[in-house]
Amino acid sequence: MTLVSDPRLAQLPTPALILDEARMLRNIGRLARRIEAKGVSLRPHLKTAKSVDIAKLLLTGGRGPATVSTLGEAEAFAAAGVLDMIYAVGVAPRKLDRIAAIRARGCDLAVLVDSAAQAHAVAEASTRHGGAIPALIEIDCDGHRSGLKPTDPAVVEIGTILNRGDAELRGVLTHAGGSYGVVGAEAHARFAESERAAAVAGAEALRAAGLPCPVVSIGSSPTAHAVDGLDGVTEVRAGVYVFFDLVQAGLGVCAVENIALSVLTTVIGHQREKGWAIVDAGWMALSQDRGTRGQTLDQGYGLVCDGLGKPYPDLIVASTNQEHGIVAPRPGSDASVPDWPVGTLLRVLPNHACSVAAQFDHYEVVPSEPDAPLKVWPRVSGW
Amino acid sequence: MTLVSDPRLAQLPTPALILDEARMLRNIGRLARRIEAKGVSLRPHLKTAKSVDIAKLLLTGGRGPATVSTLGEAEAFAAAGVLDMIYAVGVAPRKLDRIAAIRARGCDLAVLVDSAAQAHAVAEASTRHGGAIPALIEIDCDGHRSGLKPTDPAVVEIGTILNRGDAELRGVLTHAGGSYGVVGAEAHARFAESERAAAVAGAEALRAAGLPCPVVSIGSSPTAHAVDGLDGVTEVRAGVYVFFDLVQAGLGVCAVENIALSVLTTVIGHQREKGWAIVDAGWMALSQDRGTRGQTLDQGYGLVCDGLGKPYPDLIVASTNQEHGIVAPRPGSDASVPDWPVGTLLRVLPNHACSVAAQFDHYEVVPSEPDAPLKVWPRVSGW
Predict the structure, then answer these.
(1) What span, in angstroms and rounded, lies between the C-alpha atoms of A57 and B217?
(2) What is the mean pLDDT of each run of 10 residues along chain A (383 residues)?
(3) Can you tell me the ipTM of this complex?
(4) CB A267 within 8 A of CB A377
(5) The domain that contains A110 carries what CATH number?
(6) Is any Cβ of chain A less than 8 angstroms from the Cβ of B69?
C-alpha cells in the first residue's frame, strides 16, 4: 500500500484543521458571482470562518457588508476594518453598551429584535449613547426558530418604537433554517421564495404604516444557491458556503469535491477483529455534530479521506470519544478498513464546517500553489 | 414573577461557563476519600477540567499523579509543576519527540501502546533521546474501543519489546467505556470488576513471561465510584467526577445537585404560540453532546435552571443552532415555559461536562464564600 500525503502536512501535530485555499476561493467566487448577477448585495456570515484573513477575501474591499453571530466576532472584525455588520442573533438588552462601543469605533453594527421589549431597550440605549443603534426586525418565514410572522401587528408596533427619537429602524431580516430539511435546488428555491415573500411582506407592512424599511435581508446557504427572483430584497446572507461540508453535499448544494475543510488525523491503532482503525481525531476535533444523521447518506462523524484528501467512499468515523475516533465501513457497505500502518495520516471531511472549525484555534491553510508553504490563519473564539 | 440571579453573575457577558467551587470541592473530596480508603492511588484525568487552577486542587501537592488526553495538556501541566502523567491515548510515533521534550523538562510522562509497531517506535525514540519513554500496554476489558485482550499473545510480545535496551515497560492500563451503558452502582461495580480482572490478567501474563508490570491502572468515573475489590490494582483513574453532569446523574453516579458546572445564558425572545423561549446559548456554548439521548431521562441539550442554579425539573434546551437555544418543556410533561422577560438570566446544566467546558476558554468560578468575588480560571485548549 502507498502512504500518500501532502508533504507540507507531514510535520503537523494531529489533529489539525486543514483548509484548501483553492477550493475555498472557488466557493467564494461561485456565490459572489451568482448574487452579483441578480443585482443585490451579498452579506456573508462570518460565523463559519471566524477569520480576519478569510473576511478579507470574502468581503468587498475587506470592509463589508458582513453578518456576525457574536459580539466577540463583531469586535474582532471591527478592529480589522470591517465597517458594516449585522449581529444576527436577537439582542439581549445588556449587550447594547458593548454594541454602542463597537459603533463608536466607526463600525456600522446593526442589531436584530423581535419584541417590543428589545425595541424599547434599543431606543433607550440609542438615547443614552447619543446615537442610533440601528435595528432590524426579525421575520419568521418557516416556523423554525425566532422572529415574528410578517402579518403580526407586533411588526408595526416594534417598527414604530424604532422610528422614534434616537432609534433607527433599519429594516427586516429572515432566515429559512427549514431549508436544511429539504434536498435539491428546486426545494431550496421554494424556501428562498418563502424567505423573500415573508421579508417583503414584513417590509410592506412597515411601509404601509408610514415606516421606513431600507434593508430587506434574506438568506441561508441552501437558499442563496437556489434563489431565483429577488424582487423587493436588498441583500442575501450565507455563511457555510465558504467551506461547504457533508451536510451541504447531502442537501445537493455542493459536491463532496467542493469541501474545503478537513481534519488531519493519525492512525493510532486497529481492532482487526472488528474491522476498525483508531485515529487521534475524536469529538474534540470533529465535534459531535451529526448533521448528516437524518440525511440519505449518514456520514457518521465525517467521511474518511487519504492524506491527499481523496475520499474512501464508504469509510466513515463511525463513533468518537474525546480524543479517539473509530474508523469503520459505512453500515451495509462491503468496504473494509485498509491495514494502514500506525502513523498513517488521513483526512476527515466534516459534517458541519461551523462546528468542526470551532474546535480549533487556527487553520493550516494549504495554498493553491503546490510548492508554497502552509499559512496559519487564526480563528476568533468566545463571545 | 421573580428574577432571581446571583448578583455576581449579573454583569457577565453571556453565554458564560459557571463553576460552583463548593460543589466541585465536594466532588473531588468524595472520590479522593473513597479511593484512599482502598489503599490505592487516584490518578485524576485532567481532560475534563483542563485547568491548572483545578489541577492544583485535584492532585496531591499539585504534582500528580495525573492523566492527560493531549500533549497540549501535558505541556501545560508539566509547565505548572505536575511531575507524573500518563498520556492515555494510544501514541502516534510522530508525537514521541515532543513527549521526550516534556520528559526532558523533568516530568515523568508515560505513553500508551497496543501494537508492536508503537512499541518499536517507543523503544527507538527512547534510544534516540538517551532515556526511556515509559510505556503502558492498553488492555481492552469490554470491547469498547482500543487495547488488547489480556490473553492476546501481543501483550507479551509488546512487553518484550518494551523491556529491552533503553525502553521501559511501565505496566498495563484499561478503561471500561462500556460502564456508560449501564445504570446504578451494582452494574458499575460489575464493570469495575471487569476492568480489574482484565488489567490484572494482563499484568499476570507479563509477569509469567518474566516481564515487570509495576503499574496496573483502571478506571472511569462510573466504575471508580462503584468499585469494591481492587486486588492487584495500583491506581484508579477518573475525570468527569470533578464537575459531574447530567449523563453521570442519569447513570446514578451523582445527583443533579452535585453538578458543579453550568452555562449562564440570557433570554432573548419567545415564540409564545409554540411555548418556546429563545436563549443565547446554542451549540457553540452547550456543545452538541446528546449523551442523555439514550438514557431514561433525555435532557435535550441541557436542563434549565433559574439564575441561582435551581432546576426547572421539566424544562430543557430542546434544540440548538449555533448561537440560539430553544427552551421548551420536556416532551410529555405538562410544564410550560414561564413568561421570562427578555434579559432574564438562566443557567443550563450540561449533558457532558467535558464537551461543554471545551466550548469555553475559561471558567467563571463562584467561590464558596457568598460575598467573595468571582475568579477567572483559564482552560488549556488545542493539541
Answers:
(1) 51
(2) 70 96 98 96 98 96 95 98 98 98 98 98 97 98 93 98 96 94 95 96 98 97 94 97 98 98 98 96 98 96 96 97 98 96 97 98 94 96 96
(3) 0.96
(4) no
(5) 3.20.20.10
(6) yes
Show which of residues 79-118 on chain B sit within 8 Å of chain A, judged by CB atoms: 89-95, 98, 114-115, 117-118
Distance from CA of B272 to the nearest CA of A (A): 11
> C-alpha dihedral over A21, A26, A31, A35, to 10 degrees?
120
CA distances to A28, A216, A258, A296 from A184, rounded to whole Å, are: 20, 25, 16, 12
Q: pLDDT averaged over consecutive 10-residue blocks of chain B (383 residues)?
A: 70 96 98 96 98 96 95 98 98 98 98 98 97 98 93 98 96 94 95 96 98 97 94 97 98 98 98 96 98 96 96 97 98 96 97 98 94 96 96
Chain B residues in contact with A16 by the CB 8 A cut-off are 383
Cβ of B15 under 8 Å from any chain A Cβ? Answer: yes
- Residue B240 CA, chain-centre distance (Å), reads 3
Residue with cell string 483553492: A22
In a domain, B277, yes or no: yes
Among B182, B211, B243, residue at a domain's last position: B243
Cα separation, A307 vs A227, in Å, equals 36
For residues B273 and B364, state if they share a domain: yes
Do both B85 and B127 map to the same domain? yes
Q: Give chain A's end-to-end CA distance (angstroms, integer).
A: 46
Q: Do B238 and B265 share a structural domain?
A: no
A288:B284 CB<8 A? no
